[in-house]
Amino acid sequence: MRIPVEKAAKNIKLLAFDVDGVMTDGSITYDENGVEYKTFNAKDGHGLAKMAKNGFITAIITGRKNGTVDRRASDLRVTEVFQGVKNKLPILEAIMEKYGVDFSQVSYMGDDEPDICILEKVAIAACPADAVEKVQAVCNFKSDKNGGQGAVRQLCDFIYDSQQDNI
Predict the structure, then answer these.
(1) Is residue 167 part of a domain?
(2) Conformation bin of residue 77: beta by default, left when phi > 0, alpha when psi is -120 to 50
(3) Is 156 among the domain residues?
(4) What residues have CB less than 8 Å from 11, skipping those under 6 apart?
(5) In this predicted structure, what is the pLDDT of residue 62?
(6) Tell me, what CATH number does 19's domain have?
(7) What is the pTM of this model?
(8) What does the pLDDT look like over 128-162, one tens digit per residue?
(9) pLDDT in tens, 19-68
């Protein structure tokens, strides 16, 4: 049984995110040459950048691989970026070990079944409003915003605001 999300937020040091359906609306657009494009939300980006600026560890762990993710992560100073990952939990555990944090200090936002293996273990299991039902069932933070439409920002603000006495 997890502790209440409001209490868990006070201990978060690492925020990790999926990309498609979380940082984006889940759309995948290709041009005639097969180049893939993604659209990111500027407000979500500001939330992530604020967390990085204030000493939080930020991470992206995504199943797809795309250069736009690297560019966005660089712009936002995301601490750790892993793409093309099919089994996300070992990657998160390696990041946790590197920074000396445990699951009680981790938040993860995902939207689909490959994220459940992480969501079941972290202190704040977060999802956008339009996450699949199986994901929503295991989350203790459900944004009222859809993926790519402010869900990331809502989570960042929630955690940041909960720690204002600590920062």
Answers:
(1) no
(2) left
(3) yes
(4) 104, 105, 123
(5) 95
(6) 3.40.50.1000
(7) 0.95
(8) 999 999 999 999 999 999 999 999 999 999 999 99
(9) 999 999 999 899 999 888 899 999 999 999 999 999 999 999 999 998 88
DSSP string across 97-153? HHHT--GGGEEEE--SGGGHHHHTTSSEEEE-TTS-HHHHHH-SEE-SS-TTTTHHH
Residues 68-96, mean pLDDT to the nearest whole number:
95
**How many whole angstroms separate alpha carbon 163 and alpha carbon 167?**
6
**Which residues sit opposite 60 in a β-bridge?**
17, 81
- Number of domains forming the structure of the chain: 1
Residue 67's contacts (CB-CB under 8 Å, 6 or more residues apart) are none
